[in-house]
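Model it.
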Amino acid sequence: MSLSSSQRTPTSGGRAAARSAGAGATRLPSSRERRPALAALAVILILLGAAGSALIALNSGNRSDFVAIAETLPPGHKLEQKDLSRGDLAGATGGLIPWSEAEKYLGRYTKTWLYKDQFVTPDSLTKDNEKPIPARSALVGLSLEAGRAPSDGLQIGDVVRVIRVPAANQDGGAAVTLVNAAEVTSAAGAITDSKTSANSTLNVSILIPDDDITAVAAAAAAKTVAVVKLAPGTKPDVVRNGAN
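Modeled.
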């Protein structure tokens, strides 16, 4: 009996040793073993933060000041100091007016609508000593709905014929030509909304002889005005350089 007992003892000890060896193979890393990995991760994050800060600083250093609009201005507005604000930009800014050159553009006239905070290019203003409204002429604004202008819209420089049409509640009225050829000096909006395809409004400014001001303004107010786009090259009744 004692012999049998002594033979079983090593077997029991061997099993305990096996369990101990198996446990050692699957144990989690100790906190001391994880420290180098955490330290390496911290170093990487520090380097990434430093690189980001350097990039921001580099881009900030490339920013420049340009001329912007303080409040919305209509076409034909004479530019004053109070109309301008300073805005800074980085990157591709070709064509914009540097703030250092703002004074040389004072006294010029706007060619189109300029909106608040919009940056300004020389093309949006008249040239030096050029007036947007020649003598014996006027700029008139028209608000045109579907059926009163070409469906594909109008662009600056287009020449249109201005016609007074009968009102919707008028029967038997005849259409009357108000202006034979008027140049479009600004255009905004569209006859049809490009996103919803719903009817919208096209707003244009046209240059007309001052003899036609009253008739055109009255038709515009009564919403009985329509415009027809003429062929390219058609000479307008009022030429920009004032040579009628």
